[in-house]
Design brief:
Radius of gyration: 20 Å
Structural class: mainly alpha
Largest sheet: none
Shape: globular
Helix content: 40-55%
Strand content: under 5%
GO molecular function, one term: oxidoreductase activity, acting on paired donors, with oxidation of a pair of donors resulting in the reduction of molecular oxygen to two molecules of water
InterPro entries: FA_desaturase_dom (IPR005804), Fatty_acid_desaturase (IPR012171)
Number of helices: 16
Protein name: Fatty acid desaturase
Order of helices and strands: HHHHHHHHHHHHHHHH
Low-confidence stretches: 1-26
Keywords: Membrane, Transmembrane, Transmembrane helix
Oligomer: single chain
Number of strands: 0
Distance between the termini: 30 Å
């Protein structure tokens, strides 16, 4: 939810369309050595912050989902367009926050939050058509030291080095997410069960919230295979039931339209957040941990808007790349400790940015230079 979803279905971009800017315009992150003092401080100063608070997780997720679904119902039932619009915005923001717990599910040990993944999938993952198997096993590859920013990273494209039209396309893809997911689960899943070649394609290319079109996913194994199958079955049943209900008039076109709009709204906000989660300036070479950190973004300045567009700790995305298993509710304290302990010359302070608008302007300006 990217970051989320952190991502949407892979963009179908040909190799020719991945043309980047001249080498002279690129930032050579591959030459950045590790800042040992920063890495040591990040590990030592946060040793006591790694246990997730069950009360915070359950309360935040359930309250956000409750507000989101109540606002969704109010959007459908609102007597006037202004009221529907206000309720719709609340629904999008609340469900966006609730859906982003897919990111926490991917990183934390499930034994520390028993049944959290199950309940999240039942009330959010399946109804919003983003079950957690679409992110689990994919997002962790993005954090692999030897994969980040390379062709083997499912969640990375050198967006800052690409053509200007790639950014609007990136957002357009997210707007189509609910329709794409209805087709994926309601049509492709049942067909793939009887057409083995299609099944291999669905697993490899349409079973991950990824942005790298060259990435192919492997079939699930072990315990995760069971998780994958029941989640996919749930999303398939939900999709077929919804399509059938709309076709037979049980669910009105108005209600269905609101559903598509809300899910698309959640996906678009997440995609905007994804655009500023990194600087996207690596050209495919392996990076040190410090270089990966510098290609990522913190927006630590307190502000109401930051809590809306980057909730559940995602405004500390660079810090998250240093400490991937740190619970979201501990990131504020971790940032305070590390930034206080380290000098201004430390690499830690160089990944902090003041606003979403400034980051979007930087990315857009970089793509303009790629023309």
């Amino acid at each position: 939810m990217a970051d989320i979803m952190t991502k949407s279905l892979a963009l179908k971009i040909d190799d020719a369309e991945l043309e980047t800017a001249p080498a002279s315009a690129r930032i050579k992150l591959s030459g950045v050595p590790d800042d040992r003092a920063m890495l040591r401080a990040a590990a030592e100063l946060t040793r006591d912050l790694h246990t997730p608070n069950k009360r915070i997780y359950w309360t935040d997720m359930l309250v956000s989902a409750g507000i989101g679904y109540a606002a969704f119902a109010a959007t459908i039932l609102a007597p006037t367009w202004p009221l529907a619009l206000v309720a719709g915005v609340v629904a999008v923001l609340a469900l966006y926050r609730a859906s982003l717990f897919i990111h926490e599910i991917t990183h934390l040990k499930h034994s520390l939050l028993p049944n959290f993944r199950l309940v999240w999938n039942l009330i959010l993952g399946v109804p919003l058509l983003v079950p957690s198997f679409m992110y689990e096993g994919v997002h962790t590859m993005h954090h692999a030291r030897t994969r980040y920013g390379t062709v083997e990273d499912p969640e990375y494209l050198p967006l800052a080095l690409m053509k200007p039209w790639t950014l609007p396309m990136f957002l357009l893809v997210s707007m189509l997410l609910p329709v794409a997911m209805l087709i994926r689960f309601g049509v492709l899943t049942p067909l793939s069960l009887v057409i083995p070649p299609l099944r291999r394609l669905v697993v490899a290319k349409y079973s991950g919230l990824q942005i790298n079109p060259k990435f192919s996913r492997r079939a699930p194994e072990g315990e995760f295979r069971t998780q994958w199958y029941w989640q996919e079955a749930g999303a398939c049943i939900f999709s077929i039931a919804l399509i059938t209900a709309v076709a037979t008039g049980v669910v009105s076109l108005h209600a269905f339209g609101v559903y598509l709009a809300v899910v698309a709204g959640v996906a678009v906000i997440n995609q905007v957040r994804t655009l500023v989660a990194h600087l996207w300036e690596n050209d495919g070479e392996p990076l040190t941990v410090t270089a990966q950190y510098l290609d990522s973004v913190n927006v630590p300045t307190p502000g109401f808007l930051a809590y809306l567009w980057a909730p559940v700790g995602l405004r500390y995305h660079a810090l998250h790349h240093l400490l991937p298993s740190l619970p979201y509710h501990a990131l504020d304290e971790a940032h305070r400790r590390i930034s206080t302990a380290l000098e201004e010359a430390s690499a830690y302070h160089k990944a902090n940015y003041p606003t979403l608008r400034g980051l979007m302007h930087r990315l857009a300006a970089s793509t303009m230079g790629a023309r």
